[in-house]
């Protein structure tokens, strides 16, 4: 890539760039494990990590004037703002699966209004989906029910106890109403189909004039983002890996866990041509 053009780097966060202790997936003997940097604290406890090498590479990328690093997540704005990445803060961030576009940490009202208009026109309302989730969920495995930014809903569950048939039935019910279901760790997301990370990424491209886009993600909710980018990567774990999903412009990595996160940042740095990384 030439050093003159701007490259937009849009990356999913959880289980792509950052990892909880349960998702680290370390398989080497403890003395050989990579050193980790905590990048998120919640209620006074360390929650999410990167390898120190990945953190250094990301700091170099974020400081590169030819790159626009855009954290892209299904997290709410409040959940996203707990994360402290190394390097300069990102000018743009995509939260709530594309429902919130943050500019210098502040939600863009025009973008939120545009999103609300699309959802009203193209899919069933949130309240209908939320009530259905409450009606069909089993207290045996349901731990919490949450609404995110008044845009989508998710359940916190005991994953091993959730019947596959139940998840399949929910997916079919939601699909007929313009919604997508995604299982990620202990959370089951129900998200409006028009609510996409790719649409928000395209808006940031429009505002920045980026000539090239790079992306990474691990879940079904990231597929549209990966397909919309010029080049993309997915780790060797997650919904997309489990399904064997790929595309001509998407590189399927064999690495899994936190070391996959390091490899993804390394690929971003190589593709951008970030110096001294």
Class by SSE composition = alpha/beta
Number of helices: 9
Distance between the termini: 16 Å
Q: Please tell me how large the radius of gyration is.
A: 18 Å
Quick one: biggest sheet?
5 strands, parallel
Which spans have pLDDT < 50 for at least 5 consecutive residues?
A: none
Describe the structure.
Helix content is about 30%, strand content about 25%. The protein is built from nine helices and 15 strands. It has helices at about 50-65, 75-80, 110-120, 125-135, 165-175, 195-210, 225-230, 240, 260-270; strands spanning about 5-10, 20, 35-40, 45-50, 65-70, 90-95, 100-105, 105, 140-150, 150-155, 180-185, 185-190, 210-215, 230-235, 250. Strand 13, helix 7 and strand 14 form a beta-alpha-beta unit. It is globular and about 55 Å long. The chain starts with 6 loop residues before the first strand and ends in a 5-residue tail after the last helix. The model has no long low-confidence stretch (mean pLDDT about 95).
């Amino acid at each position: 890539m030439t050093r003159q053009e701007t490259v937009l780097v849009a990356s999913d966060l959880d289980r792509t760039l950052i990892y909880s202790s349960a998702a680290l997936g370390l398989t080497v003997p403890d003395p050989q494990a990579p050193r980790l940097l905590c990048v998120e604290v919640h209620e006074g406890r360390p929650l999410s990590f990167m390898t120190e090498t990945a953190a250094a590479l990301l700091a170099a990328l974020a400081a590169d004037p030819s790159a626009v690093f855009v954290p892209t997540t299904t997290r709410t704005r409040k959940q996203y703002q707990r994360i402290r990445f190394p390097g300069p803060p990102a000018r743009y961030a995509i939260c709530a699966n594309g429902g919130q576009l943050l500019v210098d940490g502040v939600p863009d009202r025009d973008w939120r209004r545009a999103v609300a208009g699309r959802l009203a026109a193209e899919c069933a309302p949130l309240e209908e989906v939320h009530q259905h989730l409450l009606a069909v969920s089993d207290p045996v495995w349901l731990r919490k029910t949450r609404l995110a930014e008044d845009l989508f809903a998710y359940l916190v569950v005991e994953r091993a106890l959730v019947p596959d048939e139940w998840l399949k039935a929910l997916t079919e019910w939601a699909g007929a109403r313009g919604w997508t279901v995604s299982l990620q760790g202990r959370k089951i997301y129900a998200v409006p189909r028009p609510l996409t990370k790719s649409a928000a990424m395209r808006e940031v491209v429009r505002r920045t004039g980026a000539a090239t886009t790079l992306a990474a993600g691990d879940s079904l909710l990231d597929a549209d983002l990966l397909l919309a980018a010029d080049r993309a990567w997915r780790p060797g774990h997650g919904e997309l890996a489990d399904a064997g999903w790929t595309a001509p412009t998407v590189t399927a990595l064999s690495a899994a866990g936190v070391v996959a996160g390091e490899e993804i940042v390394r690929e971003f740095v190589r593709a951008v041509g970030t110096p001294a990384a």
